[in-house]
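User: I want to check something. If I give you two sequences, will you return the structure for each one separately, not as a complex?

Assistant: Yes, each is folded on its own. Here is the first sequence with its structure:
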Amino acid sequence: MCGGRGTRLDREGEKPLAPVAGRSMVDRTLDTLAASRVETAYAAVSPHTPRTRERLGERASGGGRVADGAERGAGSVEVTVVDTPGDGYVADLQAALAEGPEPPVLTVAVDLPLLDGPAVDTVLDAHAAAGSDSLSVRVPAARKRGLGASADAATRYDDGDGDEAAGEAVDPPDERVPAGVNVVGALDGGGDEAVRATRDARLALNVNRPGDRRLAKRILAGDRDAPTLPSGGVDWLGKPEPAEGGDRP
């Protein structure tokens, strides 16, 4: 998803093209997908992101190769550009699904510069293991704030961690934020949806504000006082839960 205005970043230019540690977020996202098991990507642009559309065309004409130094998974990812109306995330997602792939579909927001291939593969595995139509990935708002990131979309959900029947401690409902990586099972939002929550920094930092971009740059640079970036698979909190309360991302 790369059609947002990015007005909260307080900078000129399109959000997907905003550089983080010297590389645009849209390029980072495509490199991440190429380093995962994903083989085909549909890039949802809008009238707000004409230069992003041009950049995607440049990558396609160059063969869509993974950037030098990027971790390579199964190979480069094939990218198809899909035009959306630019009426917001949900409306644009529905438009992209109507024009693009058959569900279930992995959706990835362009504002996750810390995301990597192994984390994407873990989300795909979690969806397969849950046996549900859709999968929603969420991050505790307290974790985002603890990292120093913004948590503008925090919503109180009723899916606390743990399994009371199995004797595990059950956390009370808390504020959680959609991570921006999900699996959508149906165009009309039907079917059942599982929820997984994580504190993993790769899924916890969405670049929505200038401070988020500075934080991502420090983490990617390995600054000594910056949070440590995990590697490998994602550690989930508790067990898969059915979605309850709040709005589906």
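And separately, the second sequence with its own structure:
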Amino acid sequence: GGTAAATTKPIKNNPKKNQRGKKDAEGGVGHDSVRKKGPPEAKAEKEKEKEETLWQTFTSHPLVNVGRFILVPYALYWGFHYVRLQRPDLASAATLGLVRLRPAVGVEGERQVLIVAPMSGGTVQVAHDLGEKLGLEVGHECSNTAWHYARDGTVSWMHGLRFLDPPDTRDGMAKSLTKLCDNFTEAMGFHPDMYRPSQGKCSHRRRWDQCWRDECRNVVVREWGCARTGRCETPYRRVLHQVRHPLRTVESLASKFCVGGIHGAVHPSLLTYASALFWEVDFKRDDSCAVTAAKFVLGYSEAMRGARRDGLIDGRYKVEEASPCDVARLAGLLSEEDAVYPPNRRRARSVCNDPSGSGGD
């Protein structure tokens, strides 16, 4: 029987493949080979990869992501007010004089008006109306122009401290300072920061500590009775006494400080401040709240009346009857001679329909 002969397909010679293999054999770089990097290049690439990894880790951290939406707006907010209130010259320099902000007013810079009235005497509404209707920068219970818009004046009960007589003995002053400054008292509208930036660099992250106690004592000693000695740190062109019907004032105080109604006990904070400031008045712990509030209002009103009689306060008005323009006239805002900041005078004249400014004289 016959057998099939096995056949093999001849292998073709590939010149390109042979040439590539020849190069490999000679140490050349072939198509599939990878050039090994030297030590310096490998180290540089490793460092770059490490830096990118650290940066990616930092930017992807949750706190960093939150900071973009909290810390940046916070910094911009305070930066805006810092430039407006303390360094308006920076805005002028940055815009080559195109933007001219209102000049800064320091602690000793003169303001237009100080309005004093007892607590619950309608001070909040008056400060609001002067700002909204006349465009004035009037602070409520604040004259610190470094961080507050109070460059035109202040409406305050505690700023009446400059017209009160301080205790006539060292022991009496020490007792009053202890009551006012040893502990922070809620809802009394007083903090040393309301007068000026802290001289002791006290931290605002702490409401009250030893630094603020020392600051409080310095402020109270400096302000108490300073109008009579002529040593008040912050001057005002005009000072006004705002009065309200005494029964309405006592009623408002009672709603804030009476425990158990007007015939009940008085809140300790009102008793502490009243007995510290009006040290000649006999405040008793067993007095009803209405009696304590009445003594406080009477003591404050008599002190302001005496200051007005002695020429330390320029005028008086009833809050129930006076309009913002009436207050502006008494404050000298419409008078060319008495207006501290001229743009305010022009704006007030326009709002109050007094182009001549005669209403201020």
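Because they were folded independently, the notes below concern the second chain alone. The mean pLDDT is 86. The chain has two domains: 62-94, 112-360.
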